Amino acid sequence: MKIRRTVTTLLVALAALIAATAAPTTATQAATGSPYCGITWGSGDKTAGALSSAPLIEVRTGRHDCHDRVVFEFDGPVTGYSVGYGETYTEGEGLALSPYTAGDALLRVSLRAPAYDDEHLATVPYRTGEHVANVLRYQTLRDVVFGGSFEGYSTFAVGVRARLPFRVFVLAGPGSHSRIVLDVAHQWQE
After folding, report:
1. Calpha distance 172→174 (Å, rounded)
2. Which residues contact 93 (CB under 8 A, 6 or more apart)?
3. Over the stretch 72-123, which tens digit does the pLDDT of each residue have?
4. HEC profile for 17-83?
5. 89: closest CA among 81, 100, 78?
6. What φ, ψ does residue 108 adopt, rounded to 5°?
7. In which region does residue 92 sit, left (phi positive, over 0), alpha (psi from -120 to 50) or beta (all else)?
8. Model pTM?
């Protein structure tokens, strides 16, 4: 009788141990799923490049099958940026842009280049706090707000519908221009 109880206890403990080790694997597989459109960008901060004197001349947006895009075009070579989720403040005065930017999550975009020329004249038609793009019918983008340009840095608040994966990269051209491109995925998983 005592042996039977011991064997039963051991079998129950063994079954519990097997169930405990198998459950996290199954839960992890179910939680991760496959990446949406093969996107593996992540949502952590992305920073690269150095300060440039080439001025910002245009900001535009685009819709794609798997992501929405913001393009910052410069009159010359530019490689410097810092992009991440969190509060964005206006350059020079430190005013938070979140109350003025649509979206449930906010990408703070700091471009390491001015939005003015050598004579300190604006090279883009936006004033601090202005909405710079019409993102009506975009799946992910909700707003793009100019945060100003000060001491060679230009800032934007990009409102998105949720904290989603994003990537940032630099493209040369057209001509002597360069572009910093921000893509934000439509979702995390298939």
Report:
1. 7
2. 128, 148
3. 999 999 999 999 999 999 988 889 999 999 999 999 999 999 999 999 999 9
4. HHHHHHHHHHHHHHHHCCEHHHCCCCCCCEEECCCCCCCEEEEEEEECCCEEEEEEEECCCCCCEEE
5. 100
6. -95, 125
7. left
8. 0.81
